[in-house]
Amino acid sequence: MSGELRYFCFGTALGVAAAILFTPKSGPETRALLNSKASDAADYVKSQADDARAAATDAVKRGKQAVKNQVDSVSAAVDAGQKAYQDGVAGNARS
Questions:
Q1: Could you point out which of 1, 7, 18, 91 has its C-alpha 20 to 30 Å from the C-alpha of 46?
Q2: Cα 52 from Cα 91, distance rounded (Å)
Q3: Higher-scoring residue by pLDDT: 1, 17
């Protein structure tokens, strides 16, 4: 869990406790307020999780593309080396 999320959760819990202790509202009104705040907190956490999932997916895609580019470069270098070797062998055979 990231530091920001821990502080958010801690702050939410602290706010709920303060609301319960210091609220001038009736029980049903207080419960409705607490339900609203809990729903807001759940929405925030879900949003952060979705953002993290999207960032991870993007990083994986970029990593796959980087690996593909490296494989293509190495493959091209191997092909060039084989061709140079074959040209060298063919040149020696003519001599």
A1: 18
A2: 58
A3: 17
The dihedral sign for the CA sequence 9, 13, 14, 15: positive
Q: What is the pLDDT of residues 41-83, one digit of tens each?
A: 899 999 999 999 999 999 999 999 999 999 999 999 999 889 8
Indicate the pTM of the whole model.
0.51
* Token code pair at residue 6: 């821990």
CA–CA dist 48, 43 (Å, integer): 9
Are 27 and 19 in contact by the 8 Å Cβ rule? The answer is: no
Three-state secondary structure along the chain? CCHHHHHHHHHHHHHHHHHHHHCCCCHHHHHHHHHHHHHHHHHHHHHHHHHHHHHHHHHHHHHHHHHHHHHHHHHHHHHHHHHHHHHHHHHHHHC
